[in-house]
User: Fold this.
Amino acid sequence: MSAADFSASSGAGGAAQYRSSTRLPRSARRRQLLDAASEIFVERGYHSAGMDEIAAAAGVSKPVLYQHFPSKLDLYIAVVDSHAEKLVSDVNRALLTTTDNHQRVRAAVGAFFDFIDEDNSGYRLIFSSDAKDPAVIRRVEGASEACVDAVYGLVMTDSGLDPHRSRMLAAGMVGASQVNARYWLEANRPIEKAEAVEVTVALLWHGLSGVPRIDGETGIAAGADSADAGGAAAEGSDAAETVE
Assistant:
């Protein structure tokens, strides 16, 4: 069906709607289509959503939609990818905000809670999707793996652990953050988000302190805690000397 045929079959109102649609650069049009599709997929689910209603929501003809996305599955994957990329980017950015490991854990956990709290469409499409196509599942798993990769690199560098143990810790940290953030949202935010983040950080940080290091230290987190304590003791000693 041509664009002209589609407009004619939609009636005068539909024709006016498509004529009034502003011409946009391809990248801007793609973003517009992804935003409209995201809302429809969340509201209707993958299987019930139709390309015609997505096109109508975006204010374009169905042929224009198909120019950008050859099928509904292609469109759905692109929507999932856009939200997944945001999640991974947020986690990576959070990990780079500080070199203090305790603060890194807090920042990364906060990134998961913020994503699930603020990007409701992304949360539902990534973690509660009704689409079971292998390509979609691979995209969702890929997003989680990318988050694990980001944490894994830091764990291995700072802990001195072998790759297998480092990856297990990274996967556990990401998994706990995701599960706790999802529980918090689905339980209708029973406590303040900041408090929920701190509960999760406490769980992860104290857990890390019990993981034996290759260099014989008592735990990954213990080294940082000991350094902090040593710094505080030195400051106290300097203060005492000044008083004397």
DSSP finds twelve helices and no strands in the chain. Residues 134-159 form the longest helix (26 residues). The CA atoms of residues 18 and 96 lie 45 Å apart. Residues 1-20, 222-244 have pLDDT under 50 and may be disordered.
